[in-house]
């Protein structure tokens, strides 16, 4: 999707289990839900 | 982010209304308890520098509801114009305003009025003159085309049913060569269509 929207140089950062210990933990675990970070650039 | 995503069949107006109500509560009753983490414990979990958190007004910290740290992806250049997409109570907005300095500017957009008010109040409390807070939607940004150097966002795009439209809108406002630094949520297992279409699962 990022590429189709015109982004290049896509870089993925850390993944974190951001729902761990929250009320939403079991629902999040069912779909292996993660917090992620990423960066990219708009093609020139 | 996958190249092909089956869109959710949700009532978008209703979803916006429910998400606005949820985040109105996060803004106005931050200690109420939510299905996601909030506030200072969340900031610690996401590895924000405690000194940065201490610098922020308590109103920005108490209603923080991000999913990562977009500022960890690279220092924002002095003088840059940065858009904070879905700024919430201003946690990342205010840290960004400090990074880009007086020659830079942060445009902070959120669709929840209570969050917009908290971000404005936070900028005022810190005496920041380079924060421009606007009420608006991620799919229809109140921002001029090709006017922004960097777009940051934290835990917002997952709440939008049409993610492609959001990414195209981000592309529109960025200058050529501009970049994005985003924290959000992904699901690594396939989500059944009936779950995607269940509006209650979107806003919790």
Task: Reconstruct the topology from this structure.
The complex is a heterodimer of chains A (44) and B (204).
Chain A: E1 7-16, H1 25-30, E2 33-42
Antiparallel strand pairs in A: 1-2
Chain B: H1 12-28, H2 39-45, H3 50-55, H4 58-62, E1 81-85, H5 91-100, E2 105-110, H6 113-126, E3 131-135, E4 148-154, H7 163-173, E5 174-187, H8 193-196, H9 199-203
Parallel strand pairs in B: 1-2, 1-4, 2-3, 4-5
Helix pairs in contact in B: 1-6
Can you offer a commentary on this structure?
The complex is a heterodimer of chains A (44) and B (204). Chain A is mainly β and 44 residues long. Chain A has one helix spanning 25-30; strands at 7-16, 33-42. In chain A, strands 1-2 form a two-stranded antiparallel ribbon. The two termini of chain A are 18 Å apart. The mean pLDDT of chain A is 89. In chain B, α5 links the parallel β1 and β2. In chain B, α1 (12-28) runs parallel beside α6 (113-126). Chain B is globular and about 50 Å long. The mean pLDDT of chain B is 93. The interface between A and B is large, with 33 and 45 residues.
Features:
heterodimer, A: about 45 residues, mainly beta, two-stranded antiparallel sheet, 1 helix, about 15% helix, B: about 200 residues, alpha/beta, 5-stranded parallel beta sheet, 5 strands
- Helix percent of chain A reads 10-25%
Q: Which structural class is indicated by helix and strand composition of chain B?
A: alpha/beta
**Can you summarize the main beta sheet of chain B?**
5 strands, parallel
The largest sheet of chain A, given as strand count, sense and whether it forms a barrel, is: 2 strands, antiparallel
Shape of chain B: globular
Strand order of the largest sheet of chain A: 1-2
Q: Give the termini separation of chain B.
A: 22 Å
Query: Helix count of chain A, per DSSP?
Result: 1
Could you tell me the mean pLDDT of chain B? 93
Poorly predicted runs of 5 or more residues of chain A: none
- Count the helices of chain B. How many? 9
Structural class of chain A: mainly beta
């Amino acid at each position: 999707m990022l590429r189709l929207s015109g982004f290049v140089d896509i870089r993925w950062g850390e993944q974190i289990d951001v729902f761990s210990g929250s009320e939403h933990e079991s629902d999040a675990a069912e779909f292996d839900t993660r917090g992620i970070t990423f960066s990219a650039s708009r093609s020139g | 982010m996958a190249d092909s995503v089956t869109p959710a069949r949700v009532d978008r107006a209703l979803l916006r209304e429910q998400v606005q109500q949820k985040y109105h509560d996060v803004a106005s009753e931050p200690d109420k308890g939510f299905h996601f983490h909030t506030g200072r414990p969340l900031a610690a979990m996401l590895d924000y520098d405690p000194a940065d958190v201490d610098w922020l007004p308590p109103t920005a910290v108490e209603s923080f509801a991000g999913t990562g740290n977009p500022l960890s992806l690279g220092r924002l250049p002095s003088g840059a114009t940065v858009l904070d997409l879905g700024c919430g109570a201003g946690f990342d907005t205010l840290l960004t305003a400090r990074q880009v300095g007086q020659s830079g500017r942060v445009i902070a957009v959120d669709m929840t009025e209570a969050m917009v008010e908290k971000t404005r109040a936070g900028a005022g409390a810190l005496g920041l003159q380079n924060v421009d807070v606007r009420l608006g939607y991620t799919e229809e940004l109140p921002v001029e085309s090709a006017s922004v150097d960097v777009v940051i966002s934290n835990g917002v795009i997952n709440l939008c049913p049409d993610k492609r439209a959001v990414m195209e809108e981000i592309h529109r406002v960025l200058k050529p060569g501009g970049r994005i630094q985003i924290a959000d949520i992904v699901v690594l297992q396939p989500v059944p269509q009936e779950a995607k279409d269940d509006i209650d699962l979107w806003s919790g």
